[in-house]
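Try this one yourself first.
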């Protein structure tokens, strides 16, 4: 049974004076806040919306929950009956016809892989396993293990046929993992459903690392306040910003790592070398769509400041924390 938590902002006038005036001018009652947490696709999504129509808000979040559950059924690689799992089981043997939705998502993944010189790669699963990051905290593998895993990694092994809308793998042992893009896609779908249901103020987060801010909580022009955490101290922040009708995703070496032989190894893997990337502590990307902000955090992390400055789209903002003795965190100019 789903439980939707709806509450009135009791400090409305103090926190959002503009919204207080709007509430009395445009609708009876007080500004309402609704929050729903949903576990799906291996992470927790939190949907927070503001509005004046209680039934509309409840209906919108119900529709968003239905959409997320649908995505979980179709795009989760841990569900054997999902379309994604079907591709992993069969695509090495023959072309697999897939839905237009999945085909479009895989096309996007391959496009980002090409543009990022292979640093974004949804076939990276074998490397994550050999390094112990797939469902663990990590361990140091032997060179032979890394080399063997690399044999099964490479986005060029994903062969897409637009005419037949099929997917085929170029060799046995290849598999695809939605972990690098699935959260962002799901957040964008939730936002689309909320908009279709008349919602104009919402914040959707996935696992705390991917966010989309729709409108602003008080109906004003400033947007939603968001913080970027200090990669060396979770109790501190290194940047404060306002998001409005845009997304932000963050990848950091602090998310999962281990120490071996006096060195730190993080879970952010360079698919070209088979080893964890070095040089960055965290990267945050602000972009119009969460699909893009999530997908590009790891290439910018791996390829570094200069490559990112030369290749990022003009409508992206990138915040870098470099791994230096004197912590350097700043917006890329």
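Now uncover the answer:
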């Amino acid at each position: 049974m789903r439980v939707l938590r709806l509450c009135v902002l009791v400090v409305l006038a103090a926190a959002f004076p503009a919204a207080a005036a709007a509430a009395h001018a445009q609708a009876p009652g007080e500004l309402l806040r609704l929050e729903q947490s949903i576990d799906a696709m291996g992470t927790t999504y939190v949907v927070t919306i503001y509005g004046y129509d209680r039934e509309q808000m409840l209906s919108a979040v119900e529709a968003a929950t239905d959409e997320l559950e649908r995505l979980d059924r179709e795009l989760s690689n841990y569900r054997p009956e999902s379309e994604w799992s079907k591709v992993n089981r069969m695509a090495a043997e023959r072309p697999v016809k897939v839905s237009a939705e999945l085909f479009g998502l895989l096309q996007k993944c391959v496009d980002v892989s090409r543009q990022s010189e292979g640093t974004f790669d949804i076939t990276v699963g074998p490397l994550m396993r050999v390094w112990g990051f797939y469902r663990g905290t990590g361990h140091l593998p032997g060179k032979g293990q890394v080399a063997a895993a690399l044999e099964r990694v490479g986005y060029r092994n994903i062969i897409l046929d637009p005419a037949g809308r099929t997917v085929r793998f170029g060799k046995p042992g290849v598999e695809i993992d939605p972990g690098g893009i699935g959260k962002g896609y799901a957040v964008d779908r939730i936002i689309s459903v909320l908009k279709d249901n008349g919602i104009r103020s919402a914040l959707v987060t996935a696992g705390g690392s991917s966010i989309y801010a729709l409108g602003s909580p008080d109906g004003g022009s400033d947007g939603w306040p968001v913080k970027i955490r200090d990669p060396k101290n979770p109790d501190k922040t290194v940047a404060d910003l306002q998001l409005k009708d845009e997304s932000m995703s963050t990848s950091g070496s602090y998310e999962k790592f281990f120490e071996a032989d006096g060195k730190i190894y993080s879970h952010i893997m360079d698919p070209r070398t088979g080893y964890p990337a070095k040089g960055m502590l965290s990267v945050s990307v602000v972009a119009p769509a969460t699909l893009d902000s999530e997908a590009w955090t790891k290439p910018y992390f791996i390829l570094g400041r200069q490559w990112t400055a030369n290749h990022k789209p003009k409508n992206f903002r990138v915040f870098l924390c470099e791994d230096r003795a004197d912590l350097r965190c700043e917006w890329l100019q």
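Discussion: Residues 106 and 247 are 21 Å apart (CA to CA). Residues 1-27 have pLDDT under 50 and may be disordered.
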